[in-house]
Prior knowledge:
By secondary structure, the protein is mainly alpha-helical. The protein has helices spanning 19-22, 37-49, 55-61, 118-131; strands at residues 78-81, 96-99. Strands 1-2 form a two-stranded antiparallel ribbon.
Amino acid sequence: xxxxxxxxxxxxxxxxxxxxxxxxxxxxxxxxxxxxxxxxxxxxxxxxxxxxxxxxxxxxxxxxxxxxxxxxxxxxxxxxxxxxxxxxxxxxxxxxxxxxxxxxxxxxxxxxxxxxxxxxxxxxxxxxxxxxxxxxxxxxxxxxxxxxx
Length: 149
């Protein structure tokens, strides 16, 4: 698959809409990133689904006065959903792209142990022991060892 140029791309095709602008993106020391055309097409389609469109495409939609009705613009069909579990940073794979009308999952609530009964706290401790988060056995000082040579 070759990468179409700005002059030869099909602006109506989401996989080609901005593919030409994604080629050789500058990296360290001005070197252009060499990326497989399949990824560039996927990224172009992704940007289209996010609602981005290029100036030339918009100019083609304009009437003789240069106006574009909002109904002519592409719809945003996906949105970014931050991580709903785990640490709140960009490297958490629980973050994802979802449909723009999809609701966020309910937040995870950590129970306040001060509001729990003794039986509820003991049940949680047992779960931690069974999962290995709390080591079994009695806590105490380390025992002496005998080394025979």
